[in-house]
Write a structure and sequence with these properties.
The chain is α/β, with parallel strands linked by helices. Helix content is 41%, strand content 20%. The protein binds adenosine-5'-diphosphate (ADP) and magnesium ion (MG). The site of magnesium ion (MG) has 4 residues, from helix 7. Magnesium ion binds next to helix 7.
């Protein structure tokens, strides 16, 4: 990766550099993968100046060209897999929650999305031979549903020190969709200080749904969600981290969204999420997970349960 500072890029003076840093563009790579609109907004530049800076950053950071399959295969060797606690759910995902990818959990209220996220945050601290990534968690909480007590229960069940585990989960409350998007920039800063291997956004779509109402707001909402998801993916790539996002679907039909099992964000979220899992409740406390989208795995279902001790088969 480029070691030059952003001031060394042609067209970036001290004032522009300050504005860029304020907006989270701390290094050449961050600029190289930005869109001209993003950069123009962040540094109050014209689109063509922004474009020139991005091109210079791409040359510097050596991105944007074609790669051969073997190079990609090599990079994919570093992909880690994080256990969910359920063997059957892991198998559905080809071995667990992948790093460098977004896994979206969608389903109605109470289907187990937040429970799985808690379990992942505990499991990520474990060594690789126990299904972990020896890392820590960043958790963006939009619905105030993160529960330290639940983490303690799950950690204790795995004979881990619950207080130690709690110290590895860095939680930020997002107050609205704009704040939620800004928190990704903060996340990049946090990841410089801690070995972050899991990023949870619970819920990713709640604020967007509440704030952008009706057909007239749909295009803007989709555009922002798209950008948000690309920021998340970039975080996953840069830090080789797993990204778990949740998306609630309504139990009862909605006048605007129609189909109750349709996740918010429609195909924007669908195309950017690498894996999509639809969760539903079944008899006897069972949960059914259905893989509805994946680049390389067949569709299928897994059954798991949510217990006091956490996610189990
Ligand atoms: P959502 O999909 O809305 O995020 P949750 O992940 O919060 O749903 O799931 C809530 C469900 O998880 C509860 O209805 C309950 O069935 C189960 N659950 C939560 N806490 C516990 C616990 N301590 N022991 C057993 N089951 C629990
Ligand atoms: Mg929840």
């Amino acid at each position: 990766m480029a070691s030059k500072s952003i001031e060394e890029l042609p067209g970036v003076g001290p004032a522009t550099a300050d504005k860029l840093r304020e907006a989270g563009f701390n290094d050449v790579m961050a600029i190289a993968v930005a869109s001209p609109q993003m950069l123009a907004e962040a540094a109050e530049l014209g689109q063509s100046s922004a474009q020139k800076i991005i091109l210079a950053a791409r040359v510097e950071a050596d991105v944007g060209g074609f790669e051969t399959g073997d190079t990609i295969l090599e990079r994919r060797k570093s992909i880690g897999r994080l256990t969910s606690g359920s063997k059957s759910l892991n198998e559905l995902l080809g071995g667990g929650f992948e790093t460098q990818a977004i896994t979206e959990l969608y389903g109605e209220f109470g289907s187990g999305k937040t429970q799985i996220a808690h379990q992942l945050a505990v499991n990520v601290t474990r060594p690789a031979d126990e299904g972990g990534l020896e890392g820590e968690t960043l958790w963006i909480d939009t619905e105030t549903t993160f529960r330290p007590s639940r983490v303690k229960q799950m950690a204790t069940a795995l004979e881990l020190d619950p207080d130690k585990i709690l110290k590895t989960i860095h939680v930020a409350r997002a107050f609205n969709s704009h704040h939620q998007m800004l928190l990704i920039e903060k996340a990049m800063e946090e990841a410089e200080k801690f070995p972050i291997k899991l990023l949870v956004v619970d819920s990713m779509t709640g604020h967007f749904r509440a704030e952008y109402i009706g057909r007239g707001a749909l295009a803007e909402r989709q555009q922002l969600l798209n950008r948000h998801m690309h920021d998340l993916l970039r975080f996953g790539d840069v830090h080789n981290a797993a990204i778990c996002v949740t998306n609630q679907v309504q139990a009862k039909p909605d006048a605007f969204f129609g189909d109750p099992t349709r996740p918010i964000g429609g195909h924007i979220v669908g195309h950017t999420a690498t894996f999509r899992i639809y969760l539903r409740k079944s008899k006897g406390g069972k949960r059914i997970a259905r893989l509805t989208d994946s680049p390389n795995l067949p569709e299928g279902e897994a059954v798991f349960i949510v217990t006091e001790e956490g996610i189990k088969d």
